[in-house]
Design brief:
The protein has 461 residues and is of the alpha/beta class. It folds into 2 domains: 22-189, Beta-Lactamase (2-Layer Sandwich); 209-458, P-loop containing nucleotide triphosphate hydrolases (Rossmann fold), CATH 3.40.50.300. 37% of the residues lie in helices and 20% in strands.
């Protein structure tokens, strides 16, 4: 751990990690086989004695020298030694640590590592950086199995996820196919790897106050002051002609609040959710969960799972609410998309929103009030001991916006249209939701109020 009184030189970017190619993987397997023949076992990953790891590195290096590979003969003697040392470190990491991800764990500014289907990214001193595809997905699936074995856990068909602590105190979580439908997903969260002084925190704006005194807007959106919008997304938002969809696109693109899309069956809830997913920020990890595959989401860093809402008694496996709990507590998504809330996952959905996660889902309901009542009923069914008041408080605290879709018969043709948008502004003295309607398709014309709210929020970018 760093000396608290010694400021660290802040690097401009995360370390560069060279992707593993086919020859790298072949070399790792060759050395592994030779180690078996020589009766040399890699040190246990919880081995605290650095000297044992050093001796293993020397054994690997000796094998590479004996193999006399062409890569090691190329160039000068100094270059050859550098190649051997590089390969020896790569193989040592692969067989005794967490593979090429060990290079990232050695950097104190790496706060979290994300792996999605071979793509690797890091949260680096508060910023998200995509490092690109570093290996085939099979490499990371094997890595997850190795870590599970070393941690005394297992990855198997009826329990396709693992949660273990690494020797350095890092938290390792992995979800593998078939539960994860888009390849292996891994998160490694680091803790206490460097201490920042108050002076450093002052310099980086930790204690700077943002003046919101002139903003006349709903409290759920005050957090948007620190959100930035990608210029391309902003241009798309500005190009939208209708205020209601512009507002919803803005909420999603900035991850300003949690959104629930309500409506009767066949009203276009999922269609709207799919369309809005195109505005999700691409510089943040996203998770999508469904009971069956229905969402159409294109995102470069997507963790996607499909799990049933319930399992017949005695049937091995995991349910949607279990997976949702793992994802929002361990996988650190910037936003969670739940295809539809239909069962016990309603409570996990609310818990996630009350922990600051931004979440989007759909639910059945003929009105905004009916949809909120159904969300309450589903959450209460999962934990009746909490009582209605507690559940209602969770809804009011965690959920920000409710949009209502509807089926409208016009000239003998059914059209699916947006009926209303409301902000949940807390609970009144009678224990009912305070709903601030920004838009209604019929009745009073609320578009001017809606436009004013949008412009106020946009002014805080």
């Amino acid at each position: 751990m760093d000396n608290p009184g010694t400021p660290m030189i802040h690097p401009s970017a995360p370390p560069r990690v060279e992707p593993l190619n086919a020859s790298d993987l072949e070399l790792i397997e060759q050395v592994r086989e030779e180690l078996v023949l020589r009766g040399i076992n890699p040190p246990n990953w919880r081995e605290a004695d650095s000297e044992k790891r050093r001796r293993f590195f020397d054994e690997v290096r000796s094998i590479l020298i004996d193999q006399n590979t062409p890569a090691h003969n190329a160039g000068s003697q100094g270059e050859s030694h550098a190649n051997i040392n590089h390969d020896a470190q790569l193989i040592t990491d692969a067989l005794s640590g967490v593979g090429l991800l060990d290079q990232l764990l050695r950097d104190p500014f790496v706060e979290e590592i994300f792996v999605r289907n071979g793509e690797v990214a890091v949260e680096y001193d508060g910023s998200f950086h995509n490092l690109g595809k570093l290996a085939d997905d099979s490499y990371f699936e094997n890595l997850a199995v190795h870590v599970a074995d070393q941690g005394g856990a297992t990855l198997r068909g009826d329990r396709p996820a693992v949660l273990v602590d690494l020797p350095g105190g890092e938290r390792f979580t992995a979800i593998v196919p078939r539960l994860s439908t888009e390849g292996t997903a891994i998160n490694i969260r680091t803790f206490g790897r460097r201490v920042r002084t108050l002076e450093e925190m002052e310099q980086t704006g930790t204690f700077s106050k943002y003046d919101l005194s002139s903003a006349k807007m709903s409290p759920p959106f005050m957090r948007a002051s620190e959100k930035g919008i990608n210029p391309e997304l902003l241009q798309r938002i500005e190009s939208l002609q209708n205020t209601p969809d512009r507002f919803l696109a803005w909420v999603v693109s900035t991850l300003t609040g949690s959104l629930m899309i309500a409506g009767e069956m066949g009203s276009g809830k999922t269609t709207l959710l799919n369309a809005l997913s195109g505005f999700l920020p691409t510089t943040a990890p996203i998770a999508a969960l469904e009971t069956f595959r229905e969402l159409e989401i294109q995102h470069p860093f997507l963790l996607r799972t499909v799990a049933p809402a319930e399992l017949p008694l005695g049937t091995p496996g995991v349910t949607l609410d279990w997976v949702l709990n793992v994802i929002y507590t361990r996988m650190n998504p910037a936003a969670i998309l739940v295809g539809e809330v239909v069962g016990n996952e309603a409570l996990q959905f609310l818990k996630a929103t009350c922990l600051g996660r931004k979440a989007i889902t759909t639910i059945h309901g003929g009105s905004i009030e009916e949809a909120l009542m159904r969300l309450e009923q589903l959450a209460l069914a999962a934990a009746p001991e909490l009582g209605l008041d507690a559940i209602r408080s969770m809804v009011a605290m965690g959920l920000d916006v409710v949009a209502l879709m509807g089926r409208v018969n016009r000239s003998g043709r059914v059209e699916r249209t947006l009926q209303a948008i409301a902000i949940i502004a807390g609970i009144d003295e009678n224990g009912n939701y305070r709903l601030n309607y920004l838009y209604r398709a019929d009745g009073e014309q609320n578009t001017p109020v809606f436009e004013e709210a949008y412009q106020q929020m946009k002014g805080l970018e």
